[in-house]
Amino acid sequence: MSQIDLAWGAGPSPGYEALAGRFRPLFARIAEGALRRELDHELPHEPIRWLKEARFGAVRVPREDGGHGASLPEFFNLLIELSEADSNVTQALRAHFGFAEDVLNVRAPAHRERWSARLAHGEIAGSAWTEIGDANIDGFSTRVSATGGGLVLNGAKYYTTGSLFADWIDVGATGPTGERISAFVRRSAEGVSVVDDWDGFGQILTASGTTTFTDVAVAADDILPDEDRFKYSAAFYQLVQLATLAGIGRAIAGDVATAVAGRTRTYTHAAAPRSSRDPQVLQVVGRIRGAAYCAGAIVLQAAASLQRAFDTRFAGDPAAEERANAVAELETAQAQTVVSNLILEAATVLFDALGASATKKPAGLDRHWRNARTLSSHNPRIYKDRIVGDFAVNGTLPPYQWRIGTPAAPTLEAGPEKGRTAVRAVT
Protein backbone atom coordinates (compact mmCIF):
# COMPACT_ATOMS: atom_id res chain seq x y z
CA MET A 1 0.00 0.00 0.00
CA SER A 2 1.12 3.54 -0.67
CA GLN A 3 1.73 6.15 2.00
CA ILE A 4 -1.48 7.85 0.93
CA ASP A 5 -3.48 4.64 1.41
CA LEU A 6 -1.99 4.28 4.89
CA ALA A 7 -2.92 7.91 5.70
CA TRP A 8 0.70 8.93 6.24
CA GLY A 9 0.38 11.48 3.45
CA ALA A 10 1.86 11.66 -0.03
CA GLY A 11 5.50 10.87 -0.55
CA PRO A 12 7.96 13.69 -1.23
CA SER A 13 7.99 13.21 -5.02
CA PRO A 14 5.92 11.65 -7.83
CA GLY A 15 8.52 8.88 -8.15
CA TYR A 16 8.75 8.09 -4.46
CA GLU A 17 6.40 5.10 -4.44
CA ALA A 18 8.43 3.38 -7.17
CA LEU A 19 11.65 4.01 -5.26
CA ALA A 20 10.20 2.87 -1.94
CA GLY A 21 8.65 -0.19 -3.57
CA ARG A 22 12.13 -1.60 -4.15
CA PHE A 23 12.86 -1.62 -0.44
CA ARG A 24 9.52 -2.17 1.32
CA PRO A 25 9.65 -5.99 1.14
CA LEU A 26 13.09 -5.77 2.72
CA PHE A 27 11.87 -3.39 5.41
CA ALA A 28 9.04 -5.82 6.18
CA ARG A 29 11.56 -8.63 6.49
CA ILE A 30 13.64 -6.54 8.88
CA ALA A 31 10.55 -5.72 10.95
CA GLU A 32 9.69 -9.39 11.39
CA GLY A 33 12.75 -10.02 13.54
CA ALA A 34 13.06 -6.66 15.27
CA LEU A 35 11.41 -7.64 18.57
CA ARG A 36 13.29 -10.94 18.76
CA ARG A 37 16.62 -9.22 18.15
CA GLU A 38 15.84 -6.69 20.88
CA LEU A 39 14.88 -9.33 23.45
CA ASP A 40 17.80 -11.63 22.61
CA HIS A 41 20.36 -8.85 22.12
CA GLU A 42 21.06 -10.10 18.62
CA LEU A 43 23.05 -7.53 16.67
CA PRO A 44 21.53 -6.74 13.25
CA HIS A 45 24.34 -8.18 11.14
CA GLU A 46 21.85 -9.97 8.90
CA PRO A 47 19.48 -7.01 8.25
CA ILE A 48 22.43 -4.79 7.43
CA ARG A 49 23.76 -7.45 5.06
CA TRP A 50 20.37 -7.51 3.32
CA LEU A 51 20.50 -3.72 2.93
CA LYS A 52 24.04 -3.91 1.56
CA GLU A 53 22.97 -6.50 -1.00
CA ALA A 54 20.11 -4.19 -2.05
CA ARG A 55 22.62 -1.30 -2.26
CA PHE A 56 20.50 0.73 0.10
CA GLY A 57 23.68 2.46 1.24
CA ALA A 58 23.93 3.94 -2.26
CA VAL A 59 20.40 5.32 -2.28
CA ARG A 60 21.71 8.90 -2.64
CA VAL A 61 24.41 8.06 -5.20
CA PRO A 62 23.39 9.26 -8.69
CA ARG A 63 22.00 6.62 -11.03
CA GLU A 64 24.77 7.25 -13.54
CA ASP A 65 27.27 6.29 -10.84
CA GLY A 66 25.45 3.08 -9.93
CA GLY A 67 23.18 4.33 -7.15
CA HIS A 68 19.46 4.95 -6.78
CA GLY A 69 19.56 8.72 -7.26
CA ALA A 70 17.24 9.66 -4.38
CA SER A 71 16.71 13.29 -3.45
CA LEU A 72 17.20 14.24 0.20
CA PRO A 73 13.42 14.34 0.93
CA GLU A 74 13.08 10.90 -0.67
CA PHE A 75 16.03 9.61 1.34
CA PHE A 76 14.67 10.84 4.66
CA ASN A 77 11.23 9.41 3.90
CA LEU A 78 12.90 6.03 3.29
CA LEU A 79 14.66 6.36 6.65
CA ILE A 80 11.30 6.89 8.34
CA GLU A 81 10.06 3.65 6.79
CA LEU A 82 13.23 1.75 7.74
CA SER A 83 13.04 3.10 11.30
CA GLU A 84 9.47 1.91 11.61
CA ALA A 85 10.85 -1.56 10.88
CA ASP A 86 13.84 -1.33 13.27
CA SER A 87 15.29 1.94 14.51
CA ASN A 88 18.51 0.20 15.57
CA VAL A 89 19.32 -0.50 11.94
CA THR A 90 18.86 3.13 10.89
CA GLN A 91 21.01 4.39 13.75
CA ALA A 92 23.70 1.82 12.98
CA LEU A 93 23.86 3.19 9.42
CA ARG A 94 23.66 6.87 10.35
CA ALA A 95 27.39 7.45 10.02
CA HIS A 96 27.42 5.66 6.68
CA PHE A 97 24.70 7.89 5.28
CA GLY A 98 26.60 10.98 6.42
CA PHE A 99 29.76 9.64 4.82
CA ALA A 100 27.89 8.96 1.56
CA GLU A 101 26.48 12.50 1.62
CA ASP A 102 29.99 13.81 2.01
CA VAL A 103 31.10 11.84 -1.05
CA LEU A 104 28.38 13.55 -3.10
CA ASN A 105 29.58 16.97 -1.94
CA VAL A 106 33.35 16.57 -2.23
CA ARG A 107 34.99 18.78 -4.84
CA ALA A 108 37.89 16.43 -5.66
CA PRO A 109 36.69 14.37 -8.68
CA ALA A 110 39.05 11.45 -8.07
CA HIS A 111 37.92 11.08 -4.47
CA ARG A 112 34.26 11.28 -5.45
CA GLU A 113 34.62 8.73 -8.24
CA ARG A 114 36.58 6.27 -6.10
CA TRP A 115 34.14 6.36 -3.23
CA SER A 116 31.01 6.47 -5.37
CA ALA A 117 32.13 3.21 -6.95
CA ARG A 118 32.66 1.64 -3.54
CA LEU A 119 29.24 2.79 -2.33
CA ALA A 120 27.55 1.56 -5.50
CA HIS A 121 29.22 -1.81 -4.93
CA GLY A 122 27.46 -2.00 -1.56
CA GLU A 123 30.31 -1.09 0.78
CA ILE A 124 29.38 0.88 3.91
CA ALA A 125 31.24 3.07 6.36
CA GLY A 126 31.17 3.47 10.11
CA SER A 127 32.31 6.40 12.19
CA ALA A 128 34.99 7.04 14.78
CA TRP A 129 34.99 10.68 15.84
CA THR A 130 34.09 11.18 19.48
CA GLU A 131 36.70 10.81 22.19
CA ILE A 132 35.69 10.50 25.84
CA GLY A 133 37.30 11.19 29.20
CA ASP A 134 39.41 14.35 29.26
CA ALA A 135 39.44 14.71 25.47
CA ASN A 136 39.97 18.28 24.26
CA ILE A 137 36.92 19.85 22.65
CA ASP A 138 39.14 21.66 20.11
CA GLY A 139 41.05 18.70 18.71
CA PHE A 140 41.73 14.97 18.65
CA SER A 141 44.29 12.90 20.52
CA THR A 142 43.87 10.31 17.75
CA ARG A 143 46.65 11.06 15.27
CA VAL A 144 47.96 10.22 11.84
CA SER A 145 51.76 10.25 11.90
CA ALA A 146 54.43 9.89 9.24
CA THR A 147 56.83 6.98 9.65
CA GLY A 148 59.51 5.49 7.49
CA GLY A 149 56.97 3.08 6.06
CA GLY A 150 54.23 5.65 5.40
CA LEU A 151 51.31 7.07 7.38
CA VAL A 152 49.90 5.33 10.47
CA LEU A 153 46.86 5.99 12.65
CA ASN A 154 46.83 5.65 16.45
CA GLY A 155 44.12 6.44 18.97
CA ALA A 156 40.85 5.40 20.58
CA LYS A 157 37.26 6.46 19.97
CA TYR A 158 33.86 5.88 21.55
CA TYR A 159 30.30 6.17 20.19
CA THR A 160 31.62 4.48 17.04
CA THR A 161 28.11 3.67 15.92
CA GLY A 162 27.86 1.12 13.13
CA SER A 163 31.59 0.51 12.77
CA LEU A 164 31.21 -3.13 13.79
CA PHE A 165 29.06 -3.72 10.70
CA ALA A 166 31.09 -1.58 8.30
CA ASP A 167 33.66 -2.14 5.57
CA TRP A 168 35.35 1.20 6.23
CA ILE A 169 35.71 3.52 9.22
CA ASP A 170 35.73 7.29 8.89
CA VAL A 171 38.08 8.59 11.60
CA GLY A 172 38.45 12.13 12.89
CA ALA A 173 42.11 12.73 13.68
CA THR A 174 44.95 15.20 13.98
CA GLY A 175 47.23 15.14 10.97
CA PRO A 176 51.04 14.98 10.83
CA THR A 177 51.35 18.78 10.98
CA GLY A 178 48.58 19.38 13.51
CA GLU A 179 45.72 19.92 11.07
CA ARG A 180 42.27 18.37 11.56
CA ILE A 181 41.65 15.58 9.08
CA SER A 182 39.43 12.66 8.23
CA ALA A 183 41.16 9.35 7.64
CA PHE A 184 39.47 6.33 6.04
CA VAL A 185 40.65 2.85 6.98
CA ARG A 186 39.38 -0.66 6.39
CA ARG A 187 37.59 -2.08 9.42
CA SER A 188 39.41 -5.35 8.75
CA ALA A 189 42.83 -3.64 8.61
CA GLU A 190 45.55 -4.82 10.94
CA GLY A 191 45.53 -2.78 14.14
CA VAL A 192 41.77 -1.95 14.09
CA SER A 193 39.72 -3.27 17.01
CA VAL A 194 35.95 -2.67 17.29
CA VAL A 195 34.26 -3.68 20.55
CA ASP A 196 30.51 -3.75 21.24
CA ASP A 197 30.71 -2.27 24.74
CA TRP A 198 27.84 0.22 24.34
CA ASP A 199 25.98 0.09 27.66
CA GLY A 200 23.16 2.56 27.05
CA PHE A 201 19.58 1.54 27.84
CA GLY A 202 18.36 2.42 24.35
CA GLN A 203 19.45 1.75 20.75
CA ILE A 204 21.19 -1.25 22.27
CA LEU A 205 21.91 -3.03 18.99
CA THR A 206 23.83 -0.24 17.25
CA ALA A 207 27.29 -1.33 18.47
CA SER A 208 28.00 2.25 19.54
CA GLY A 209 31.05 1.31 21.55
CA THR A 210 34.84 1.54 21.45
CA THR A 211 37.18 1.39 18.47
CA THR A 212 40.96 1.51 18.84
CA PHE A 213 43.62 2.04 16.19
CA THR A 214 47.16 0.77 16.68
CA ASP A 215 49.67 1.64 13.94
CA VAL A 216 46.98 1.28 11.28
CA ALA A 217 48.33 1.99 7.81
CA VAL A 218 46.58 4.90 6.06
CA ALA A 219 46.80 5.64 2.33
CA ALA A 220 47.55 9.27 1.51
CA ASP A 221 44.58 9.48 -0.85
CA ASP A 222 42.28 8.29 1.94
CA ILE A 223 42.86 11.45 3.96
CA LEU A 224 40.69 14.53 3.60
CA PRO A 225 40.99 17.94 5.31
CA ASP A 226 38.20 18.35 7.86
CA GLU A 227 37.16 21.72 6.45
CA ASP A 228 36.36 20.08 3.12
CA ARG A 229 33.46 18.11 4.59
CA PHE A 230 29.92 19.02 3.57
CA LYS A 231 28.65 22.14 5.24
CA TYR A 232 25.15 21.01 6.21
CA SER A 233 26.53 17.98 8.03
CA ALA A 234 25.25 19.03 11.47
CA ALA A 235 21.71 19.44 10.15
CA PHE A 236 21.99 16.20 8.19
CA TYR A 237 23.07 14.05 11.12
CA GLN A 238 20.39 15.57 13.33
CA LEU A 239 17.70 15.00 10.74
CA VAL A 240 18.66 11.34 10.46
CA GLN A 241 17.82 11.06 14.15
CA LEU A 242 14.55 12.94 13.69
CA ALA A 243 13.59 10.63 10.82
CA THR A 244 14.42 7.70 13.09
CA LEU A 245 12.16 9.17 15.78
CA ALA A 246 9.36 9.62 13.25
CA GLY A 247 9.74 5.96 12.29
CA ILE A 248 9.60 4.96 15.95
CA GLY A 249 6.36 6.93 16.14
CA ARG A 250 4.89 4.89 13.30
CA ALA A 251 6.05 1.68 15.00
CA ILE A 252 4.34 2.76 18.22
CA ALA A 253 1.15 3.56 16.34
CA GLY A 254 1.16 0.16 14.68
CA ASP A 255 1.99 -1.78 17.82
CA VAL A 256 -0.63 -0.10 19.99
CA ALA A 257 -3.35 -0.44 17.33
CA THR A 258 -2.60 -4.16 16.97
CA ALA A 259 -2.59 -4.68 20.73
CA VAL A 260 -5.86 -2.82 21.24
CA ALA A 261 -7.56 -4.68 18.39
CA GLY A 262 -6.66 -8.03 19.92
CA ARG A 263 -7.41 -7.17 23.54
CA THR A 264 -10.40 -9.03 25.10
CA ARG A 265 -9.94 -8.15 28.77
CA THR A 266 -11.54 -4.96 30.05
CA TYR A 267 -12.46 -3.13 33.26
CA THR A 268 -15.74 -2.73 35.09
CA HIS A 269 -15.37 1.00 34.77
CA ALA A 270 -14.38 1.00 31.07
CA ALA A 271 -16.46 2.87 28.49
CA ALA A 272 -17.12 -0.23 26.34
CA PRO A 273 -17.01 -4.02 26.67
CA ARG A 274 -13.97 -4.22 24.36
CA SER A 275 -10.99 -1.89 24.09
CA SER A 276 -11.42 -1.76 20.32
CA ARG A 277 -14.80 -0.05 20.90
CA ASP A 278 -13.82 2.08 23.88
CA PRO A 279 -13.83 5.76 22.82
CA GLN A 280 -11.26 6.72 25.44
CA VAL A 281 -8.84 4.02 24.32
CA LEU A 282 -9.41 4.90 20.67
CA GLN A 283 -8.65 8.51 21.53
CA VAL A 284 -5.23 7.49 22.85
CA VAL A 285 -4.52 5.44 19.72
CA GLY A 286 -5.53 8.36 17.52
CA ARG A 287 -3.39 10.77 19.50
CA ILE A 288 -0.36 8.53 19.00
CA ARG A 289 -0.98 8.21 15.29
CA GLY A 290 -1.38 11.96 14.96
CA ALA A 291 1.96 12.47 16.68
CA ALA A 292 3.64 10.07 14.26
CA TYR A 293 1.99 11.79 11.29
CA CYS A 294 3.11 15.24 12.38
CA ALA A 295 6.66 14.05 13.11
CA GLY A 296 6.96 12.64 9.60
CA ALA A 297 5.58 15.80 8.00
CA ILE A 298 8.04 17.95 9.96
CA VAL A 299 10.97 15.76 8.92
CA LEU A 300 10.06 16.11 5.24
CA GLN A 301 9.72 19.89 5.56
CA ALA A 302 13.19 20.10 7.10
CA ALA A 303 14.55 17.70 4.46
CA ALA A 304 13.55 20.17 1.77
CA SER A 305 15.84 22.76 3.38
CA LEU A 306 18.75 20.30 3.22
CA GLN A 307 18.01 19.69 -0.45
CA ARG A 308 18.27 23.43 -1.05
CA ALA A 309 21.61 23.48 0.76
CA PHE A 310 22.86 20.58 -1.35
CA ASP A 311 21.73 22.30 -4.55
CA THR A 312 23.90 25.36 -3.77
CA ARG A 313 27.09 23.29 -3.30
CA PHE A 314 28.35 23.62 -6.88
CA ALA A 315 26.39 26.71 -7.93
CA GLY A 316 29.38 29.04 -7.55
CA ASP A 317 27.66 31.42 -5.12
CA PRO A 318 29.37 31.14 -1.70
CA ALA A 319 26.99 33.61 -0.04
CA ALA A 320 23.92 31.69 -1.21
CA GLU A 321 25.51 28.43 -0.09
CA GLU A 322 26.28 29.82 3.35
CA ARG A 323 22.75 31.14 3.74
CA ALA A 324 21.16 27.87 2.61
CA ASN A 325 23.30 25.93 5.09
CA ALA A 326 22.35 28.27 7.93
CA VAL A 327 18.66 27.97 7.09
CA ALA A 328 18.92 24.16 6.96
CA GLU A 329 20.49 24.17 10.41
CA LEU A 330 17.78 26.49 11.75
CA GLU A 331 14.93 24.44 10.30
CA THR A 332 16.36 21.25 11.74
CA ALA A 333 16.86 22.90 15.13
CA GLN A 334 13.24 24.12 15.07
CA ALA A 335 12.12 20.56 14.32
CA GLN A 336 14.24 18.83 16.95
CA THR A 337 12.42 19.61 20.18
CA VAL A 338 8.98 19.33 18.60
CA VAL A 339 9.58 15.92 17.00
CA SER A 340 11.30 14.49 20.07
CA ASN A 341 8.50 15.75 22.36
CA LEU A 342 5.84 14.22 20.11
CA ILE A 343 7.45 10.79 20.03
CA LEU A 344 8.53 10.68 23.66
CA GLU A 345 4.95 11.44 24.68
CA ALA A 346 3.60 8.81 22.27
CA ALA A 347 6.01 6.23 23.70
CA THR A 348 4.64 7.00 27.18
CA VAL A 349 0.89 7.26 26.59
CA LEU A 350 0.77 4.03 24.56
CA PHE A 351 0.54 2.23 27.93
CA ASP A 352 -2.63 4.19 28.75
CA ALA A 353 -4.38 2.30 25.95
CA LEU A 354 -3.37 -1.09 27.34
CA GLY A 355 -3.36 -3.00 30.61
CA ALA A 356 -0.53 -3.78 32.98
CA SER A 357 0.36 -6.81 30.86
CA ALA A 358 1.75 -4.38 28.28
CA THR A 359 4.66 -3.71 30.61
CA LYS A 360 5.83 -7.32 30.50
CA LYS A 361 9.28 -7.64 28.99
CA PRO A 362 8.30 -10.10 26.22
CA ALA A 363 5.97 -7.45 24.77
CA GLY A 364 8.99 -5.24 24.19
CA LEU A 365 6.91 -2.06 24.16
CA ASP A 366 9.36 -0.32 26.47
CA ARG A 367 11.95 -0.35 23.68
CA HIS A 368 10.15 2.47 21.91
CA TRP A 369 10.56 4.88 24.83
CA ARG A 370 14.13 3.73 25.53
CA ASN A 371 15.12 4.19 21.90
CA ALA A 372 13.37 7.53 21.56
CA ARG A 373 14.83 8.83 24.80
CA THR A 374 18.34 7.79 23.76
CA LEU A 375 18.04 9.43 20.35
CA SER A 376 16.65 12.59 21.95
CA SER A 377 19.66 12.82 24.25
CA HIS A 378 22.10 13.35 21.37
CA ASN A 379 23.05 16.97 20.66
CA PRO A 380 21.04 18.24 23.65
CA ARG A 381 17.58 19.59 22.90
CA ILE A 382 17.83 22.32 25.51
CA TYR A 383 20.28 24.28 23.37
CA LYS A 384 18.21 24.24 20.19
CA ASP A 385 15.32 26.41 21.34
CA ARG A 386 17.84 28.99 22.56
CA ILE A 387 19.69 28.95 19.22
CA VAL A 388 16.43 29.40 17.31
CA GLY A 389 15.32 32.17 19.66
CA ASP A 390 18.66 33.94 19.29
CA PHE A 391 18.19 33.93 15.53
CA ALA A 392 14.60 35.17 15.77
CA VAL A 393 15.42 38.01 18.17
CA ASN A 394 19.00 38.94 17.29
CA GLY A 395 19.60 37.49 13.84
CA THR A 396 22.39 35.29 15.18
CA LEU A 397 23.21 32.47 12.81
CA PRO A 398 23.44 29.00 14.34
CA PRO A 399 26.79 27.49 15.33
CA TYR A 400 27.73 24.50 13.19
CA GLN A 401 30.43 23.15 15.43
CA TRP A 402 29.13 20.19 17.40
CA ARG A 403 32.12 18.84 19.24
CA ILE A 404 32.10 17.49 22.75
CA GLY A 405 34.97 17.45 25.21
CA THR A 406 36.81 19.51 27.77
CA PRO A 407 37.38 23.18 26.83
CA ALA A 408 41.00 24.28 26.89
CA ALA A 409 39.95 27.62 28.41
CA PRO A 410 36.67 29.47 29.16
CA THR A 411 35.02 30.50 25.90
CA LEU A 412 32.34 33.02 25.01
CA GLU A 413 29.09 31.94 23.43
CA ALA A 414 29.50 31.39 19.70
CA GLY A 415 27.96 34.22 17.70
CA PRO A 416 27.79 35.00 13.99
CA GLU A 417 31.56 35.38 13.81
CA LYS A 418 32.24 32.14 15.72
CA GLY A 419 31.30 28.53 15.45
CA ARG A 420 30.71 28.55 11.69
CA THR A 421 33.17 25.75 11.01
CA ALA A 422 31.26 22.92 9.37
CA VAL A 423 32.76 19.98 11.19
CA ARG A 424 31.48 16.48 11.67
CA ALA A 425 28.74 15.94 14.23
CA VAL A 426 28.18 12.24 14.75
CA THR A 427 27.85 11.68 18.51
What does this structure look like?
The chain contains twelve helices and eight strands. By secondary structure, it is α+β, with helices and mostly antiparallel strands. The strands form two sheets. Strands 1-4-5-8 form a four-stranded mixed β-sheet, with helices on one face. Strands 2-3-7-6 form a four-stranded antiparallel β-sheet, with no helix packed on it. A hairpin with a 2-residue loop joins strand 2 and strand 3. Helix 6 runs antiparallel to helix 7. The chain is globular and about 80 Å long. About 45% of the residues are buried. InterPro entries: Acyl-CoA_DH_C, Acyl-CoA_Oxase/DH_mid-dom_sf, AcylCo_DH-like_C, AcylCoA_DH/ox_N, AcylCoA_DH/ox_N_sf, AcylCoA_DH/oxidase_NM_dom_sf. It comes from Chelatococcus reniformis. GO terms for molecular function: 3-methylbutanoyl-CoA dehydrogenase activity; flavin adenine dinucleotide binding; monooxygenase activity. Pfam families: Acyl-CoA_dh_2, Acyl-CoA_dh_N.
Name of the level-1 CATH class of the largest domain = Mainly Alpha
For the largest beta-sheet, the strand count, sense and barrel status come to: 4 strands, mixed
The computed structural class is: alpha+beta
Round the Cα radius of gyration to an integer and report it.
Answer: 22 Å
Number of strands: 8
Organism: Chelatococcus reniformis
Region (Disordered): 408-427
Domain Acyl-CoA dehydrogenase C-terminal: 243-378
InterPro entries: Acyl-CoA_DH_C, Acyl-CoA_Oxase/DH_mid-dom_sf, AcylCo_DH-like_C, AcylCoA_DH/ox_N, AcylCoA_DH/ox_N_sf, AcylCoA_DH/oxidase_NM_dom_sf
